[in-house]
Design brief:
The protein has 17 helices and 12 strands. With 451 residues, the protein is of the alpha/beta class. It is found in: Cytoplasm.
């Protein structure tokens, strides 16, 4: 049945099959002209005599039946020949077979027409969204924080003087369209007690590519080819930065990994150095997007570090894209203790100013009681959605069931991506209707002036 997939809309195959058929017909007519029509007439007469003597069927019925049979035979031969040609090519290029090729072509044709989406954040939350949204569009750019200083990323950052590769690696794997073995390889962590212990192979791979090519953007681009990544992964900056946090009691904490551990209330976060050069292709992706999504992820240590990079917030304000903030489902101990949805939004606006959020997506599905108890024991609680306060801020609220409850409360990649893409398409349709209405009103005004 997979052969029928070649006839799916958007495959751009049917037009060439039709052209192939037309070529066969024209060639057939040419052959008839070259060899003289009488041979065709003789063949027709012979077929008529044979069928008439056998069945007694009249001339026109005979020629119709025989003609249809010949057409069917010709089409069958064409399809068989086309299939064998394709198989011959596929056996060399894609050993997995023609079904895999059909799926790839359909996927590329369909996804390349999807909306341009730029996602800003870091950590596991960003990876969750990317896993879902890559099934809807391949026009994705992930702008990733470079403030991570813990684990394997932190060690490579200090030892090699590079930006931390961990969040970049997670985003590459999330957007990958490759074999499960390759994904496992990139996520593999070395065991033992040696210098490699705890390091991720993917982190080492990105670090090696950066040293070989001398540029982290080129390293990510080449790594994307290895993993067959849909879209692009970019750091918000290529400079080494430290995330700092000033607490309400006046103390200052250094390092992204240390901020949640002090269990104090955060007043503000900032980067050191303060003037951090952005990656210009990341700014372009924000300006040219149909939608820019902030989060999901840790508010102070994943989302805000990107917005604090010079030029990022301004590019977001200048962009014509719809700006969507995905609010966390649960509060995060040491970062957002007791925060409501409006307090998450307020923290972003207090740091970078207005104009960076149009919509906030919040979870509407109640969290199961057993999970609430588990999270409560760790100091985390469902984020309260205070619609009135959000409305006062001028932010529109979209409530949806966007969580997956297993043994953890996490955003569900499929539910979340469907919600986001539905918003984008609805808003684009409304924008188009408003644009047409504007044209109509302008035309009416011009008509009135002429009159």
């Amino acid at each position: 049945m997979h052969l029928l997939k070649w006839l799916y809309p958007g495959m751009k195959f049917k037009r060439w099959l039709l052209l192939f058929s037309l070529g066969v017909i024209i060639s057939s007519v040419g052959l008839a002209v070259v060899f003289n029509y009488k041979y065709v007439g003789n063949l027709e007469e012979a077929i008529f005599r044979m069928v008439y003597l056998t069945t007694g069927t009249y001339y026109y019925t005979v020629t119709t039946i025989v003609g249809i049979a010949v057409i069917a035979a010709g089409l069958s031969l064409m399809m068989l020949a086309t299939r064998q040609i394709i198989r011959s090519v596929i056996s060399v290029l894609i050993p997995e077979g023609s079904e895999r090729l059909v799926d790839l072509i359909f996927q590329k044709r369909k996804l390349n027409r999807g909306p341009a989406v730029t996602v800003i954040g870091g950590g596991t939350g960003l990876s969750v969204l990317l896993r879902g949204i890559k099934s809807v569009t391949s026009n994705i750019t992930a702008v990733v924080t470079v403030a991570d200083d813990g684990g394997s990323s932190g060690r490579l950052r200090e030892d090699l003087g590079i930006i931390p590769p961990g969040d970049l690696r997670n985003c590459l794997v999330a957007l990958a369209d490759t074999e499960p073995l390759m994904e496992k390889l990139f996520q593999h962590r070395f065991g033992g007690d040696g210098d490699l212990a705890g390091h991720s192979f993917g982190n080492l791979f990105i670090a090696a590519m950066t040293e070989v090519l001398g540029d982290v953007e080129k390293a990510l681009k080449e790594s994307s080819k290895v993993l067959a990544v849909r879209g692009k992964v970019l750091p918000s900056s290529t400079q080494r930065v430290r995330l700092m946090a000033e607490m309400t009691d006046g103390t200052v904490i250094t390092g992204e990994s240390q901020i949640p551990l002090v269990n104090k209330t955060i007043k503000r976060v900032f980067l050191q150095p303060a003037e951090v050069e952005p990656v210009h292709s990341a700014l372009d992706a924000i300006r040219e997007a149909d939608a820019v999504i902030l989060g999901p992820g840790s508010l102070y240590t994943s989302v805000l570090p990107n917005l604090l990079v010079q030029g990022v917030a301004d590019a977001l304000r200048q962009s014509q894209a719809v700006k969507i903030y995905i609010c966390n489902v649960m509060t995060q101990p040491g970062e957002t203790d007791g925060y409501s949805a409006s307090q998450h939004v307020k923290a972003i606006l207090d740091h970078v100013g207005p104009g960076v959020i149009d919509y906030v997506v919040v979870n509407s599905q109640p969290v199961a009681q057993n999970l609430r108890e588990i999270y409560a024991s760790q100091g985390a609680y469902p984020v309260y959605v205070d619609n009135t306060e959000l409305a006062v801020m001028g932010v529109k609220v979209v409530e949806a069931n966007i969580i997956s409850e297993t043994n953890l409360v996490r955003h569900d990649p499929v539910k979340l991506s469907r919600t986001i893409i539905s918003m984008v398409y609805d808003l684009k349709a409304n924008s188009e209707r408003m644009r047409l209405l504007d044209y109509y009103l302008i035309a009416e005004n011009i008509k009135e002036l002429k009159d």
